[in-house]
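fwd from M.: "can u put these together and see what the complex looks like"

so here's what she sent:
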Amino acid sequence: MSDSAGEATPGFSLEPSADVRDVRDWAHGFARDVIRPAAAEWDEREETPWPILQEAAKIGLYSLDFFANQWLEPSGIGIPVAFEELYWGDPGIALAITGTALAAVSVAGNGTQEQLFEWVPQMFGTADDIRLGAFCSSEPDAGSDVGAIRTRAVYDAAKDEWVLNGTKTWATNGGIADVHVVVASVDPELGSRGQASFVVPPRTPGLSQGQKFAKHGIRASHTAEVVLQDVRVPGSCLLGGKEKLDERLARVREGRRSGGQAAMKTFEASRPSVGAMAVGCARAAFEYARDYTAQREQFGRPLAENQAVAFTLADMATRIDAARLLVWRAAWMARNDKEFAQAEGSMSKLYASETATFVTQNALRLLGGNGYTREYPVERWHRDATIFTIFEGASEIQRLIIGRAVTGLPVK
Ligand SMILES: Cc1cc2nc3c(=O)[nH]c(=O)nc-3n(C[C@H](O)[C@H](O)[C@H](O)COP(=O)(O)OP(=O)(O)OC[C@H]3O[C@@H](n4cnc5c(N)ncnc54)[C@H](O)[C@@H]3O)c2cc1C
């Protein structure tokens, strides 16, 4: 047997390794025993669930070690498997636990080894002294259109410092994080190709939290504006370093390739993680609706004995498994450095997030009036699910990317 590259493949298996199964069971135990019982409370409080973060840190689940080990897990599915379990517990609390990891990925993707070792540990802190990270790209006028970012980074050569000015919005952990990663424009004329990412170290003057948003779902996760007023950071806070940036900008100005392909690959590699979050949320709602309809009787029989109900459950289960398979494929491709020729990372995020909205909507309906009340968790999962179709590239943007990949055309 041979794969598309002509190399011999020893076999094919969808069976996670013993290590991955252990992590899955461990994360599931935490989700079942700690996250889920606390979910309704933190949804109502709409605050970062610090006591839960502390418990996660105590057992090593909120830690650099845990995320690094799963990120480096050989098959690639370490993160998706862990995320599915945590988000099965509760998407809002799970995002409070994993939001820092998303910020850390931006340092891993753009920074040097030195920067990685300096900043990522500071994003997590220790079990006794928890820290947070935030990734700040979106702006009021630059959401899907990241090329429109207005936050400016200007180099002060005399002091070897960068000066950042602008307003970021929708930042997960924005303003309460210890380390912020900020995407800013170095040369506005070059659009997204003239941008760079900067670390803003803890307690840097000029960075403040703006409005904190009251949200529809994932309310245990803090989302806020981040205001940058003459924020000065050392030259060493430019991710990747100045030499690399100058070379890249020179290439773009000369009309040569600018590393856009590398950036695209980084996004494709991180999208399955978001897909896995959506799978976890969908699975939670499916399981609840399955058990409810097996037990609730109308017309003298359990609801699930009606073909219309069973068919709905069948569609829900099928779509969840299909979504998970797309997520695992993309995560495996990322780990094995495969080319995402058909934007398979975007496919996984698109399909899983749309599945979460489909499944939670149907689950809510299968619970009837109960599904519409806050007495039952399906109502919360239904509110939570929509976010997966919005952040980290909305569904329409994923379709644009997939459309371009499969047609080879500059689809607008
Ligand atoms: C809870 C939450 C947490 C977030 N966390 C972060 C974070 O940590 N860091 C961060 O940087 N950002 C974060 N975001 C921002 C998020 O990534 C953006 O909201 C998202 O990219 C969409 O941008 P927008 O809200 O400006 O919508 P818009 O870009 O205005 O889009 C609105 C609608 O138009 C559609 N649309 C836009 N362009 C096109 C097109 N060309 N063709 C077809 N349809 C199109 C979109 O798909 C969407 O349906 C978060 C957002 C939320 C709500």
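replying to her w this: The first helix runs from residue 18 to 45.
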